[in-house]
Backbone:
């Protein structure tokens, strides 16, 4: 069985149409309607002149379940149909068989003509589905909207539609967030024995065109896919939006707010957020005892602070994850000892591997005021009920990423949400006494 392919070259497509016209105008019109609308051959052969003349759309039932779909008729095709049906009986079939017959052209005869013309042109993959596949391929190349085609063609999944038009899908891989232990293990695998690179290459060979992760702990992972896209998205806008919704009396300026990094690894996040908010930044660094190993790690002896005075200021602590939470609680405790007014902890991934009891105790002791994490990982039901917890919803953000990816649109505004943060701050700062629902 020969695989039928779309005609992708414009010059070849036009020559094929003209060769059909030399055989008979009805084959040319038949092919124009199929390529212009995406209708199947057997559906077009059922039309009478009145069904399609001067119409902008036409409905047809497709598939074994007779699913009704609406097909658009482009303006230029509408004019071609009008000229072809001019002066003809409205009740007659649009594409008739023999000149002396009132019956419609048979599907077999149309196939034989298409196949014969294709063979004469050296095109061996021409068949009854060529019209529809050509329409679908050209529409996809013009819009990148595979989901519209999937629905129009009544396919069960986008992968079927990709295969139908002879295109490889734009496969995306979302990398999961790992615990510190998993991260260290994967880092060893990635950089020492090369197995990580091998696995990623396997994904590339499967057709993966872009890798997506959120707040990657180690940016070096992108070195394993140097010829593919690697997108790392950060959630500072979602943090600020969630925090401002819950706290109605914040004053975001250098005199009242400061952004703190709990360690060296989160400094870039803190610097960016501080610059966007127009406030100062500070950093804790972890002083470890490298002569001792506890649970496979060198224990933290103390958190030393580098930065401006936090006395009387609201502090936003930003990091990529909360694992057990011991170091984050210790950071918050030290900030309160330094007379910070309020401490707001913002982390992309709240794992809470040792449970919530330590955070409950720290909250009761007024060591912190709020914890903001995203819903990118599992959230225990008891966490959602805590008075100190705020969820930063990422669902709309992820939907935007998928939409932009599918349409090959620029994601500059998603990568750097500076303008969006400025807009939400302007709304917040201009709120009335009753508050503003941001």
Residues:
């Amino acid at each position: 069985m020969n695989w039928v392919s779309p005609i992708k070259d414009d010059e070849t497509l036009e020559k094929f149409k003209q060769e059909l016209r030399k055989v008979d105008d009805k084959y040319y019109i038949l092919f124009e309607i199929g390529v212009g609308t995406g209708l199947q051959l057997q559906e077009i052969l059922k039309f009478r002149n009145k069904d399609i003349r001067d119409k902008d759309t036409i409905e047809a039932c497709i598939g074994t379940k007779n699913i009704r779909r609406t097909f658009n008729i482009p303006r230029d095709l509408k004019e071609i149909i009008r000229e072809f049906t001019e002066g003809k009986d409205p009740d007659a079939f649009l594409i008739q068989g023999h000149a002396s017959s009132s019956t419609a052209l048979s599907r077999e005869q149309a196939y034989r003509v298409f196949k014969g013309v294709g063979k004469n042109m050296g095109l061996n993959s021409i068949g009854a589905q060529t019209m529809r596949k050509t329409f679908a391929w050209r529409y996809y190349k013009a819009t990148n909207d595979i989901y519209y085609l999937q629905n129009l063609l009544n396919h069960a999944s986008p992968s079927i539609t990709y295969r139908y038009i002879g295109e490889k899908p734009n496969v995306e891989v979302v990398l999961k967030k790992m615990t510190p232990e998993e991260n260290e293990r994967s880092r060893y695998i990635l950089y020492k024995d090369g197995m990580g690179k091998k696995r990623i290459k396997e994904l590339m060979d499967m057709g993966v065109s872009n890798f997506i992760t959120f707040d990657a702990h180690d940016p070096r992972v992108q070195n394993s896919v140097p010829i593919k896209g690697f997108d790392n998205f950060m959630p500072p806008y979602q943090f600020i939006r969630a925090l401002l919704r819950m706290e109605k009396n914040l004053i975001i300026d250098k005199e009242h707010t400061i952004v703190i990094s709990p360690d060296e690894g989160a400094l870039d996040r803190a610097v960016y957020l501080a610059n966007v908010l127009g406030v100062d930044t500070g950093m804790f660094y972890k002083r470890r005892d490298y002569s001792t190993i506890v649970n496979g790690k060198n224990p933290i002896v103390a958190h030393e602070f580098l930065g401006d005075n936090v006395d009387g200021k609201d502090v936003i602590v930003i990091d990529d994850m909360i694992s057990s939470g011991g170091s984050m609680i210790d950071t918050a405790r030290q900030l309160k000892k330094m007379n910070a007014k309020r401490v707001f902890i913002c982390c992309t991934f709240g794992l809470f591997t040792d449970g919530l009891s330590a955070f409950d105790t720290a909250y009761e002791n007024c060591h912190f005021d709020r914890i903001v994490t995203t819903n990118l990982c599992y959230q225990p039901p008891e966490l959602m009920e805590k008075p100190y917890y705020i969820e930063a919803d990422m669902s709309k953000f992820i939907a935007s990423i998928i939409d932009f990816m599918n349409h090959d649109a620029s994601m500059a505004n998603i990568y750097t949400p500076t303008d969006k943060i400025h807009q939400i701050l302007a709304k917040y700062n201009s709120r009335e006494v009753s508050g503003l629902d941001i």
Notes: The longest strand covers residues 280-288. Confidence is low (pLDDT under 50) at residues 183-193, 432-436. The first helix runs from residue 10 to 23.
